[in-house]
């Protein structure tokens, strides 16, 4: 398995594919999911080193996933992202940091160069 493993969850598949292309271009092995439950299942098998979590999703939101990641004791770098309210993304970022996770925020829409820089 590649040293750099990225797991993405975004309910808009086309955005997950943008992240995939950018990350594969810099050497990541990438898995993209569109539902939080799928993300949780793949997380356990894939053991990502980096995750990208959309905040606003229909089933389980990104804030809940940040809490779930904390409960799993992950040491993966976590990026929270949204095109909606920055308030939610900042809440997820603050929650993760308060729990000791390595969490950063990336605002959508993102440029490929910005995404690659963040992942590097």
Could you walk me through the main structural features you see in this protein, from its secondary elements to its overall organization?
There is one protein chain. The chain is an alpha/beta fold and 120 residues long. It has a single domain, classed as Rossmann fold (3-Layer(aba) Sandwich), CATH 3.40.50. 45% of the residues lie in helices and 22% in strands. It contains five helices and five strands; from the N terminus they run E-H-E-H-E-H-E-H-E-H. The chain has a five-stranded parallel beta sheet, with helices on both faces. Strand 1, helix 1 (13-24) and strand 2 (29-33) form a beta-alpha-beta unit. The longest helix has 13 residues, at 86-98. The two termini are 18 Å apart. The model has no long low-confidence stretch (mean pLDDT 90).
Give a nutshell description of this structure.
The chain has 120 residues and is α/β, with parallel strands linked by helices. It is 45% helix and 22% strand.
Name some characteristics of this structure:
120 residues; alpha/beta; 5 helices; 5 strands
